[in-house]
Every structure is written in structure tokens, then in C-alpha cells.
Write a structure and sequence with these properties.
Layout (H helix, E strand, L loop, with lengths): L1 H22 L2 H19 L1 H20 L10 H18 L2 H47 L6 H23 L11 H15 L6
Helix pairs in contact: 1-5, 1-6, 2-3, 2-5, 3-5, 5-7, 6-7
């Protein structure tokens, strides 16, 4: 069941991520990024918002360094081939679909940066939830209580689906309040904690 849910969620996620750039123009994702940055400034304050934006730009710069465009060679034949490859790549990556992918990735990177800003705040809760699940698992094994495999599978699937839904939310061109990103680590840690509590333990 867990394997099926994982595979189905990842396939659905891949289909939707590939579909969105064909359904929305590049400007739609840029406008969405501007709207959410304004919400981030209002919620976190200008200092936090600029740190989130700077982190996103650093990630973008790192990604641009891995550009597939070849460098021009000194050999005449190699230079001609390289120029042709540059022209092909330029036509390909200048198409509206690939420009939409580029702006979609910028929006996703920004939202991921916002999510990362929440992690230090919620880290204590997440660790406490996982520690609680581990303790419940140990107590059940010492009391010879039966671990419920159905409950384990249910909560494990819920954690996987929540993670996939969070990844999908990173690319959807709908307005998300910065507070919404706090729900993701909370929900995943709670589901993971309950799955851990019912994971089979011997001794």
C-alpha cells in the first residue's frame, strides 16, 4: 500500500509539474512571486523577507552555474559545432514553455526558502513529536502490546501524501500565506510520529 501511494503520488506530481508551464505564461509566476514577497514582508518583516529573497537568489545563481550551454572551443571545427549547439539551446530555452519552467522554478525556490525559514522555529516541535512516537513504540514492545500495521500504513501514507502535496504547492500559481508553510513540517512530523509508534519492534 505504501509503495503504491508513493508511486501514484510521485507520478501525479510529475504530470502536474510538467503541465503547469504549458497552462500559464511566465509572467503569471513572476506576478505570483511579487504578491507572495509582499505578504512575506508584512508577516516576517523586511529583514526576514530580504533574507528569504537573498537565499532564493543564491540558489538561482548556483543553478545557473550548471548551465547546459557549451563554451566556445579554440579549434575551428569545435567552435562551429559549439556555435550551432548554442543556437539550438538558445531557441529551445527561449521558448515560452521553457521560460515558464524557469519562472515556475523561481517561484518554487522562493517558497522553499520561506519553508526553510520556518524550520528553526518548528524544529523543537518536530523532534518532540518524533521522540514521542519512538517512546510509544518502545512502551508498546515492553508491554507486549500489538503494533497495528494498518495504522502504521495509514499514517505513513498520510506523511507521504502530505509531502507530495507540499511539493505541488510549491509550484501552483495560487497565493499562499507564509503561515501556510508552517503546517507542512507540523503535519509531516505528526504523521511520522504516529507511524513510528506503530512500527513493529522486537524485544
Amino acid at each position: 500500500m505504501i509503495r503504491f501511494v508513493s508511486t501514484a503520488s510521485l507520478v501525479a506530481l510529475l504530470i502536474l509539474v510538467l503541465y503547469l508551464p504549458s497552462a500559464y505564461p511566465p509572467q503569471r509566476f513572476i506576478d505570483q512571486l511579487r504578491v507572495e514577497h509582499a505578504l512575506t514582508v508584512d508577516f516576517w518583516g523586511r529583514a526576514h523577507a530580504m533574507r528569504i529573497l537573498a537565499r532564493m537568489l543564491d540558489w538561482q545563481a548556483t543553478a545557473n552555474q550548471a548551465s547546459p550551454l557549451p563554451s566556445l572551443a579554440t579549434n575551428p571545427v569545435d567552435s562551429a559545432v559549439a556555435r550551432q549547439m548554442v543556437e539550438v539551446n538558445h531557441r529551445l530555452f527561449s521558448s515560452p514553455y521553457f521560460r515558464s519552467i524557469d519562472t515556475l522554478l523561481a517561484l518554487a525556490t522562493y517558497r522553499l526558502s520561506v519553508l526553510l525559514e520556518w524550520l528553526p522555529v518548528l524544529l523543537v516541535f518536530m523532534l518532540a513529536a518524533l521522540f514521542d512516537g519512538a517512546l510509544v513504540r518502545i512502551i508498546k514492545s515492553k508491554e507486549f502490546s500489538q503494533h497495528d500495521p494498518e495504522t502504521f500504513a495509514l499514517h505513513a501514507c498520510a506523511a507521504i501524501m502530505t509531502t507530495c502535496a507540499a511539493v505541488l504547492a510549491l509550484v501552483l500559481p495560487v497565493t499562499l500565506h507564509p503561515l501556510a508553510f508552517a503546517a507542512v513540517p507540523i503535519a509531516v512530523s505528526v504523521f511520522a510520529s504516529r507511524a513510528l509508534a506503530d512500527f513493529h519492534r522486537r524485544g
